């Protein structure tokens, strides 16, 4: 049976404004269970590198029903830190087989 790992996802909460009226955030990490981690194919790596200048390391399969914000977030797994790239890719959840309904690309960070 296919199963994923637990990853830690950065969550930001606005706690106020600075002197220039920009938001100030507190950061905490939450656990997200059953996330698949896969290697992207070469064309995805090259296309993203050419378009954004960022090298995709992994593609994460996010479980169906997950409501977390995966855009521009840090993700930790396997003792390393990554940052999400671009927007999550999703489809019609009921038409996607298995337990994962969204893909998120990540680059190595830090």
Query: Can you summarize the main beta sheet?
Result: 6 strands, antiparallel, barrel
Write the H/E string, N to C. EEHEEEE
Seen as an oligomer or otherwise, the chain set is: single chain
Structural shape: globular
> Average pLDDT, to the nearest integer?
93
Calculate Rg over CA atoms: 15 Å
- Ends distance: 33 Å
How would you describe this protein?
With 110 residues, the chain is mostly beta strands. It contains 1 helix and 6 strands. Strands 1-2-3-6-5-4 form a 6-stranded antiparallel beta barrel. Strand 1 and strand 2 (23-38) form a beta hairpin. The longest helix has 11 residues, at 42-52. The chain is globular, with a radius of gyration of 15 Å. The termini are far apart. The mean pLDDT is 93.
In short:
With 110 residues, this protein is mainly beta. It is built from 1 helix and 6 strands.
Key features of this structure:
110 residues; mainly beta; 6 strands; 55% strand; globular
Topology readout:
Layout: E1 5-17, E2 23-38, H1 42-52, E3 56-63, E4 74-77, E5 80-90, E6 100-108
Antiparallel strand pairs: 1-2, 1-4, 2-3, 3-6, 4-5, 5-6
């Amino acid at each position: 049976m296919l199963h994923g790992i637990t990853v830690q996802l950065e969550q930001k909460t606005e706690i106020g404004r600075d002197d220039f009226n920009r938001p100030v955030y507190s950061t905490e990490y939450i656990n997200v269970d059953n996330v698949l981690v896969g290697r992207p194919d070469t064309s995805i790596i090259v296309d993203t590198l050419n378009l954004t200048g960022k090298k995709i390391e992994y593609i994460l399969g996010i479980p169906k029903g997950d409501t977390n914000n995966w855009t521009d977030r840090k993700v930790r797994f396997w003792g390393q830190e990554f940052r999400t790239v671009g927007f999550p890719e999703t489809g019609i959840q009921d038409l996607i087989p298995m337990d994962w309904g969204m893909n998120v690309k990540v680059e190595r960070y830090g």
